[in-house]
Write a structure and sequence with these properties.
By secondary structure, the protein is α+β, with helices and mostly antiparallel strands. Helix content is 17%, strand content 34%.
């Protein structure tokens, strides 16, 4: 009995001691391992977007030019002003007007634009018929475009034109001259056709017309090419009046080129 009481007492004392020590118990501290610090990756520096080059400003104000018209056929009045033409240029449009004296009244005349988009590339430093006939792919980029047509009105004045009178050749005389040439070994003089002054009823045409950039000249053999955009002031403009004949029909005479008759040249205004 005594031994049992001693065992219970020891158990109680041990329990009290454990409880006392449990109140002062501190568990060991846990130090987690050091985590690597997060450092964000540097973002790549974006390349600067290149700014588009500003387009050169195109002067679209109207520019007025006036020139005299001269004879192109070489028959008469060479170097003498026979009328006038004017044009108004903007960046993409040309307006034109022609008032010129022509050889005949009541005849059909057609008016043409002859354009050289790159006049600096014309052969010999001057744009002429050779450059115009070189084709659209040539360096000067020529264009031939129908502008308008008109029936000439009478001026009320009679003009005189120098023409060569046809001379009938006598076959017997020609044969005899050939015989003399063989006999003497030198050319024999022949009759020259006399020059005569023939009266004609002079005429005049007055016509206004226009052209837009990109408007193409179509059809063969007369028309090809176009006026470049924003190049109305950088192109050299020729206005040509062509003489047709109503005997071939009025429509054909007014819309197809005939014998070149009058012309005016307008140099470029933008350099």
């Amino acid at each position: 009995m005594r031994a049992a009481l001693i065992g219970v007492a020891c158990t109680v004392v041990l329990a009290l001691g454990l409880s006392a020590s449990a109140g002062n118990y501190e568990p060991p501290k846990y130090d987690p391992p050091d985590k690597p610090k997060y450092e964000p990756k540097p973002r790549p520096t974006p390349k600067p977007t290149p700014k588009p080059k500003p387009k050169p400003k195109v002067d679209c104000s109207k520019h007025f030019q006036a020139e005299s018209m001269y004879d192109l056929s070489g028959k008469q009045d060479e170097g003498k002003s026979l009328g006038a033409a004017w044009i108004k240029r903007t960046c993409d449009k040309i307006e034109g007007h022609v008032t010129v004296k022509v050889d005949k009244a009541w005849e059909a005349y057609s008016v043409w634009w002859v354009i050289f988009n790159h006049p600096d590339k014309c052969t010999g430093g001057k744009c002429d018929a050779d450059d115009a006939e070189a084709g659209w792919d040539s360096p000067s980029a020529p264009a031939t475009i129908h502008a308008s047509g008109a029936i000439s009105a009478a001026t009320g004045h009679r003009e005189y034109v120098t023409v060569k009178k046809e001379v009938e050749i006598d076959p017997k005389r020609e044969k005899y001259l050939e015989y003399l040439e063989k006999k003497y070994g030198r050319p024999m003089p022949r009759l020259k056709p006399p020059l005569m002054r023939m009266p004609v009823n002079a005429g005049v045409i007055t016509v206004t017309f226009g052209l837009h950039a990109g408007q193409e000249g179509r059809g063969k053999p007369c028309c090809s090419g176009k006026l470049y955009h924003d190049n109305a002031k950088g192109a050299e403009i020729h206005i040509v009046v062509s003489q047709g004949s109503h005997k071939d029909g009025w429509v054909k005479a007014l819309t197809t080129p005939g014998e070149e008759h009058r012309y005016a040249v307008f140099k470029k205004t933008r350099h």
